[in-house]
């Protein structure tokens, strides 16, 4: 009689249990690895987007106050620096006797086009954002409820060089001053009567190229334009600029997926230095103190979601320069979470430091 060999029921159950344990461990390792990969991808994407975007802005802002006569940057600096005022909201001193009316403005007083309105100038808490103030946090100018982003407008006179177009003729010679923040080439014929002043506006706007977004699909954009410097004709007639050309549109996106944009100015009052918001700077008495540097802060978001990982809290607080904020409740995909990070940059303005009166 042959003896039949095989597994007993107990042995089979033990083998199945061990197999399930090994399989569960392998699945857990796979899920953990996948989550770690998604998180690292999200962080890498966020850091690349934020770092490269802010570096680009930094290089552009360092052009402000380039080739200007005065070293002081405030709300009266003309042809350079931060632009707070135009003829619309300039500080004016009424005429008296033979002295004509004085207009203290960043933009030349004759610039009165629609795109010099206050809505296009540097302003605090003007544009939309995806954040609100954190409750019970006594931040500067921050209260409960929706919080808006800042807007920054700069102007500068480029460093022009001659582009002879590779020909011996001079009729086609051009002035070349680099590229503006939208990627447009700054060039014009040398036969033109004056050179151009470039203006650039940084602000948050809706991004039309969007996917499954938790809130508004906001991006940091830059809109660039230019105007002629005032000049005199051969008959000594002064020709003044009247409008900013190629300005007032949606601009080009510099940085996608930005939930909040904050701007602070470093100012000097006596022997002390402090950072102040756009809104508080504009509320200071005239003449306003000079601005030495600009501090930018953005709250960026990753393109990839991280599912509904409990590590990421929907009420997580973020410190964006002087403000503590939380992201607004998502209007869609509320259970989907994203990696967010605050990135800041301090930019010293050209020729503004030092004890100089001009």
TrEMBL record:
Record PROSITE patterns: PROKAR_NTER_METHYL
TM annotation in the entry: 12-31
Keyword Membrane in record: yes
Keyword vocabulary terms for this entry: Membrane, Transmembrane, Transmembrane helix
Keyword Transmembrane helix on entry: yes
GO BP, sorted A to Z: type IV pilus assembly
InterPro entries, per database record: N_methyl_site, PilW
The name this protein goes by in its record: Prepilin-type N-terminal cleavage/methylation domain-containing protein
């Amino acid at each position: 009689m042959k003896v039949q060999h095989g597994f007993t029921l107990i042995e089979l159950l033990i083998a199945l249990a061990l197999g399930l344990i090994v399989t569960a461990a392998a699945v857990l390792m796979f899920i953990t690895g996948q989550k770690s990969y998604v998180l690292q991808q999200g962080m890498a994407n966020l850091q690349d987007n934020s770092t490269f975007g802010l570096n680009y802005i930094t290089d552009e802002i360092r052009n402000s106050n380039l080739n200007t006569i005065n070293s002081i940057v405030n709300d009266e600096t003309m042809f350079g620096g931060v632009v707070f005022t135009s003829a619309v909201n300039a500080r004016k001193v009424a005429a008296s006797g033979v002295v004509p009316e004085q207009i203290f403005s960043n933009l030349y007083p004759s610039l009165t086009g629609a795109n010099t309105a206050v809505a296009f100038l540097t302003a605090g808490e003007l544009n939309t954002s995806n954040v609100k103030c954190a409750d019970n946090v006594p931040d500067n100018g921050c209260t409960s409820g929706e919080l808006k982003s800042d807007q920054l407008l700069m102007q500068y006179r480029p460093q022009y060089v001659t582009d002879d177009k590779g020909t011996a003729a001079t009729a086609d010679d051009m002035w070349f001053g680099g590229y503006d923040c939208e990627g447009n080439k700054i060039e014009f014929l040398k036969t033109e009567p004056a050179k151009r002043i470039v203006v650039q506006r940084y602000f948050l706007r809706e991004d039309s190229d969007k996917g499954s977004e938790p809130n508004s699909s906001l991006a940091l954009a830059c809109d660039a334009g230019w105007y002629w410097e005032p000049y005199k004709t051969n008959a000594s007639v002064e020709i003044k600029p009247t409008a900013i050309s190629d300005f007032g549109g949606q601009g080009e996106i510099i940085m996608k997926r930005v939930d909040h944009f904050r701007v602070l100015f470093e100012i000097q009052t006596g022997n002390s230095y402090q950072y102040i918001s756009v809104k508080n700077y504009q509320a200071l008495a005239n003449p306003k103190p000079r601005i030495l540097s600009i501090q930018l802060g953005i709250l960026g978001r990753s393109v990839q979601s991280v599912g509904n990982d409990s590590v990421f809290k929907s009420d997580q607080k973020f410190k964006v320069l002087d403000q503590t904020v939380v992201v607004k409740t998502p209007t869609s995909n509320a259970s989907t979470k994203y990696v967010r990070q605050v990135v800041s940059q301090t930019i010293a303005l050209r020729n503004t430091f030092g004890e100089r009166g001009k």
